[in-house]
Amino acid sequence: MSALNLGKVAVLMGGRSAEREVSLMSGSGVLQALQASGVDAHAFDPAERDLSELKREGFDRCFIALHGRYGEDGTVQGALELLGIPYTGSGVMASSIAMDKTMTKRVWLAEGLPTPRYVLVRREQLAQVVAEDLVAQLGLPLIVKPAREGSSIGVTKVTQVQQIAQALAEAAQCDADVLCEQCIVGDEVTCPVLGEGDAAQALPVIRIVAPEGNYDYQNKYFTDDTQYLVPCGLPAGEEEAIQALVVKAYQVLGCRGWGRIDVMIDAASRAPYLLEINTSPGMTGHSLVPMSARSAGISYEALCCQLLAATALDHAQEAQG
User: Which residues are recorded as binding Mg(2+) 1 (predicted)?
Assistant: First the structure.
């Protein structure tokens, strides 16, 4: 599909989530790449304009460069379904499940896929949590994070029992559901997936080496101290095994278009554990999907155009009928 028949394209960026700043960086990069490729692309910030204007202004498709709530969680996807405007990435159900780390884990576990042990704590239950019980179930260190945020927002790595109450309180400020998770110590990797169903394919695995092992919001987006190794340098066979695992994890959630799955490899057993999936990954200068794609010979511009050409609706057939 050439740029000429992709029509008028809205790059959805900004939005109302805690990741607005990152989304604006992602969207600016995508917009520039699409325009440079000859696409009639325009910036559109749902925090500043009503989505109904997309229909009124004759947009043919949307590139979703929103991150977090109201962009990656099925809400925007649902609105675009109602408007009949095809969009990049996963549909309503897959987006909604993938945004919720607990629901994602439940699906993966039901399908026999490995993910760290966890305990879900509701905001109204915080006062009843016994820190020692959490440690007995999950061990130390353990990870505390909001169930529905991204970009490492509200995440704490707990190394002592007395840190748990503060970590829970911080995560609960971001979300009513707090996920407490077994901490897998070892190599941190991430792997993008492109496509849909049986045609889904993994891109090269990236190994992440962050300062003092702390891959937080600052080290993700605003420093150059984190190392991203691609080729990843993992032992023979491990990269292929992780690629097969992430494709399965992507498929069982019903994802399409693209996604990026984060994995921890246990240092002792070398067993991989699925952490979470991003269905609207970052496209900033520090982002990992473009980096992995580049190592596979796909330029940033080509990646943007490929994703845009794959825009779809959950209910396109019904709409045509």
Answer: 262, 276
pLDDT in tens, 13-40: 999 998 899 999 999 999 999 999 999 9
Residue 101 in 3-state DSSP? Answer: helix
Q: Are residues 34 and 78 in the same domain?
A: yes
Query: Which residues is 245 bridged to in the sheet?
Result: none
Q: Are residues 270 and 190 in the same domain?
A: yes
Q: Are residues 80 and 110 in the same domain?
A: no
The CATH number of residue 16's host domain is 3.40.50.20
Tokens standing for residue 108: 């993966």
Q: What is the dihedral sign for C-alpha 135, 137, 142, 143?
A: negative
User: Mean pLDDT throughout 123-147?
Assistant: 94
For the question of whether the overall pTM of this predicted structure is more than 0.85, the answer is yes
Q: Do residues 296 and 197 share a domain?
A: yes
Please state, in angstroms and rounded to a whole number, the distance separating the CA atoms of residues 15 and 23: 8
The catalytic position among 90, 96, 280, 287 is 287
Asked whether residue 310 is assigned to any structural domain, the reply reads no
Three-state secondary-structure class, residue 184: coil
Catalytic residue among 95, 151, 280, 292: 151
> What would the mean pLDDT of 289-301 be, rounded to a whole number?
97
Neighbour order of strands in the sheet with 142-146: 118-122, 177-182, 142-146, 156-158
> How many folded domains does the chain comprise?
3
- Respond yes or no: is residue 295 known to be catalytic: no
Q: Please report, as a single letter, which amino acid is at residue 235.
A: P
Peptide bond into 141 cis (omega under 30): yes
CB within 8 Å of 199: residues ≥ 6 apart: none
Say whether 278 counts as a known binding-site residue.
Answer: yes
Residue 262 labeled ligand binder = yes
> Residue 58: what are its φ and ψ, rounded to 5°?
75, 30
151 among known catalytic residues:
yes
User: What's residue 153's pLDDT?
Assistant: 81
